[in-house]
UniProtKB/TrEMBL annotation:
One of its GO terms (molecular function) is 3'-5'-RNA exonuclease activity. It comes from Prymnesium parvum (Toxic golden alga). The keyword Transit peptide does not apply. This is Exonuclease domain-containing protein. Residues 90-279 form the Exonuclease domain. Residues 1-18 form the signal peptide. InterPro entries: 3-5_Exoribonuclease, ERI-1_3'hExo-like, Ribonucl_H, RNaseH-like_sf, RNaseH_sf. Keywords: Exonuclease, Hydrolase, Nuclease, Signal. The keyword Nuclease applies. It comes from the Eukaryota. SMART domains: EXOIII (SM00479).
Amino acid sequence: MSIWRLICLSLLLPCDTAHSLAAAGVLRRAPPPPSIAMQLGSKRVNRRKRGAQVAERQKELDRLRLERPAAPRGASRPADAAARRPPFRYLCVLDVEATCEKDARHFVHEIIEFPVVVVDLYEKAVVGEFHTYVRPTANATLSQFCTALTGITQDRVDAAPTLEQVLESFEEWRIEQKLVHSEGFAGPEDFAFAADGPWDLRFFLHAECVRKGIAKAPYFGKWVNIKSMFADFYRTRSCKIHKMLQIQNMKFEGRLHSGIDDTRNIARIALRMAEDGCSFYLNEALSPRERGPNGGVFPSL
Ligand SMILES: *[C@@H]1O[C@H](CO)[C@@H](O)[C@H](O)[C@H]1NC(C)=O
């Protein structure tokens, strides 16, 4: 099944969040007709400049707020600050790497690297990392193309746990880290996953779990699509990691297509968005049917 067919199908499925895939991820990114796009060209630059000025002012205000003496214990927080807080405290940024072959159509990908970087949106800091390689089971042999692209060697994946084991150890680690998941992602200490687009959680993780009959936790069912949130927040087109960093006056650090380095850079982008005043929300989700009973994801076998 082609990607487009998958997307069309997912548009037909019912979505229970206001900011569903259809609303936020796919439809809004249709490019305007060329004539309008050209008219918008110069305006967009001005708007971006204005956006940067607003962000600067906001940063200044935030700095002042931080330097103010702490309110006495028990005093209530200013209402506006509370209102600006995202519904969850932590983002778990995920950017997987998977088996691949040059120019191969209908290639069945398997995840081979599972890196998570935790961003605290309240403290505006990176506060944790979970990183492991993953052993593919349908075809354990990496192509040379894949090793060259990702830097992941055959030895690395041969010695690694399977995806099912990785999801179990992530769950143990999550509990140790006190990353909370409650119904609706709305608790004060809750976390939500975040990824650079729909690929990691939908086309790689979800598809592989369904194929292999692996049950995964409900927190993989809804997430923040950083790519589309970035485009909405800074009023730009959706763009690749290096371009997003450039718009934020930063540079890519590390090796492109290394899962952990990509993830750290996406976390930097998310952090800068938070500093610039972005209120994160869940803008992408699997459909309720895909998520299965009790909000958890179960294989459709
Ligand atoms: C497994 O993957 C490798 C690398 O892509 C490929 O060369 C090989 O033919 C595959 N094996 C099978 C049984 O599909």
